[in-house]
Amino acid sequence: MIVSKDWLSEYVDLKMPLDELTERLTLTGLNLEGVETVAGDTAIDLEVTSNRPDCLGHIGVAREVSVLWGEELKKPDPQPKASGLKASSEISVEITCPELCPRYTARVIKGVKIGPSPAWLQDRLKAIGCGIVNNVVDVTNYVLFECGQPLHAFDLAKLHGGKIIVREATQDEEFTAIDHKTYKLSPGTCVIADAERAVALGGVMGGADSEVSDDTVDLLIEAADFDPLSIRTTARAHHLHSPSSYRFERGVDPEGVDWASRRCCELILELAGGTLCEGVVEDGAKPEPTGEIKLRFDQIPRLLGIEVADDEVRKILTDLGCEETHVCGHCVKVVPPTWRADLTREADLLEEVARIHGYDQIPEDVGVRMAPSSRSRRDVVLDRVRHVLTAAGFDEALTLSTVEPEQVESHRMWTNEPPLVTSTPVLRRANALRQSVVPSLLACRKTNVAMSNPVIEQFEIARIYLPQPGQLPDERLVLAIASGRGFLDVKGVAEAVVSDTVGHRRTLAASADDSGASTLLDASRTASLSLDGVKLGYIGELSTEGLDQFDLRGPVTVAEIDLGPLLDGAELIPRASSLTNYQPMSRDLNVVFDESVRWADVEEIVHTAGGQLLESLAFQEEYRDAERLGKGKKSLLWSVTLRSSEGTLTSEQADEVHAAIVAQLSKKLGGELRA
User: Fold this and answer.
1) In sequence order, which ranges of 211-255 are alpha helices (DSSP H)?
2) Distance CA 334, CA 564 (A)
């Protein structure tokens, strides 16, 4: 934002030296970018952050100066004299897309004389680098840079049907802008149309068919409020960035719409003559009043570390435009001004007090009292998950939430709904919100392979976005793993994650997965993971096609786990058990089962049958031999450790536990103890 020093002095007395002015503005958030002398004036280039659109006009900067130095703000009060017919007899306004344009106003001036602007107006615009056109267009630009509210002037005679219709563009609708280029529009674009065609891109650029020219006699002055996201999308899609779109993207003062319209009409009547029609034609809803914000006085020393007098706090807030609604010895309540949409909570008011009082007034070594806090359940559980994975040799990755649409189509393990897409790709062609983190990790692995990194073991905790027709998407938090280890190794890591969060007595089960579709995974080496009968995720090895798609060499195993059940069922309270001085006793079991029997089922039965004497069990090996064991049979070998807290176990007691385990395995799974 380039500010003219002479122009600024019209609204506030600038008694201070230029260096003091720029330094104080920098300390309060308007960083100095540069200073230049232009035709006897001083152009000050200030960086205005996106949360302060009120400072994208000279009056906004003057307001900051008036508060900092305690000077009076001299803001004009435009009262243009209307002596013509009613404006509603000349034009009508209708908004059919209130979500894109909540409010639109129009005033009509008849009988103007188009000509060059006076020297003072040209000097003001030249000082800030704005081009000169004619007295009417220059006035609209002047008011824009004066208050930050964009305006547009139409040639009334070129508007067909005496109508202004604010609507959404149709597919491939053509529009010729004032740069005399034709653009194809798409739905979601806000256009200003007359009875026949679009005459302006709302908030972005006017049209060539209705622009003010030397032959213009009657004017329609537009002042409106447009949706910031719509303006940003339109400007970027067509590469049409302008001072107007820049301000609408950041939001304008809804109460400043009428002021800017009156100010524009007042200056046009003064510089171009003509007759202002009575009244204003408008459509749309006026903004709802903002709610009050409470500032507790005792929070100032607690968070800033210094004392600021209550009266000074109140003066700072009222000077900034806040309306005081309550004050007592404990707090003050205010309603922020409409031009400060960034003031929504107590912390925002504290920041205003700090910057106006002066950050330089806060000592560097000031002590700020600390308040006790605790980590959330989510933080605790995710820390446990990260600890398990890093201990297992994995590194955490961080990737983008958008991928190429082809990656979504090739890996659908959670949903078959088409992905949500962004209007502008975050990266080239990456415009689909991912429905799995696995493709992102594989792309990351591809980069590491290209860099010849010897060990590539990665995980990521992130959200995926699963569309739900007629509802907001399911933003599911998942853990994704990509490893060069085998299927069973990665399954063991997943089991360790589950054990460390929801308890080692709850078993992660793996079964054939037919719930999703993926060309990346080998169907014969993919399993669905479940916990207590609820699907938790999947694990699988990449197929040849999957390896080729990401240019990967060597086997790769991936897994993805829904962290929702783990967050809900996590055991956060540490549990201690007393240690025993008695010696343990171990027994080996070699049992023959049908091929279909899962180790998870065997493990669960062993834990149940072993009772309190079972301390641990450890799987050793799996053996198959059709001649010795029989067709469709397998032998599982494992060991159990037994220990009592009441005394040393005898061989008879250990044999009883051994026999109980074998009996239950035989009864429930048909297992036979191998001789």
Assistant:
1) 228-238, 243-250
2) 41
